[in-house]
């Protein structure tokens, strides 16, 4: 089964996560098919904390990929950020 999940990177006590499409049998930080975004929980100031390539994510979902619980939460958060960033008419 193909899943979209977070793969941990970064240094000790400074996590950085890549949002990857991977086979569920592979290790968390192991081999993956495609990187579709990132999440930086320790972003400060003007740094970008979350980026998702929504076109690629919807493509993989159409192919049957399942989102992990955390990725589902982050996708909703990203949608709210995008909606808030759009200028009001």
Topology:
Elements: E1 2-11, E2 14-23, E3 34-39, E4 50-52, H1 54-62, E5 66-67, H2 69-85
Parallel strand pairs: 1-5
Antiparallel strand pairs: 1-2, 2-3, 3-4
Q: At the first level of CATH, what is the class?
A: Alpha Beta
Strand content: 25-35%
- The order of strands across the largest sheet is 4-3-2-1-5
Described by strand count, sense and barrel closure, the largest sheet is: 5 strands, mixed
Corresponding CATH architecture: 2-Layer Sandwich
Mean pLDDT: 92
Roughly how much helix do the residues carry, as a percent range? 25-40%
Q: Any low-confidence stretches, pLDDT <50, length ≥5?
A: none
Domain count: the total is 1
Q: Count of DSSP E strands?
A: 5
Order of helices and strands: EEEEHEH
Give the CATH H-level superfamily: Ribosomal protein S16
How far is the N terminus from the C terminus?
43 Å
Measured on Cα atoms, how large is the radius of gyration? 14 Å
Shape designation:
flat
Number of helices: 2
Structural class label: alpha+beta
The name of the CATH topology is: S16 Ribosomal Protein, Chain: A
């Amino acid at each position: 089964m193909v899943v979209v999940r977070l793969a941990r990177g970064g240094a000790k006590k400074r996590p950085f996560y890549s949002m990857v499409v991977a086979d569920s049998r592979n290790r968390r930080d192991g081999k993956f098919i495609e990187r579709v975004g990132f999440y930086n929980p320790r972003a400060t100031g003007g740094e970008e904390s979350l980026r998702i390539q929504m076109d690629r994510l919807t493509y993989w979902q159409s192919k049957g990929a399942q989102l992990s619980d955390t990725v589902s939460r982050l996708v909703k958060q990203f949608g709210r950020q995008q909606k808030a960033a759009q200028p009001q008419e």
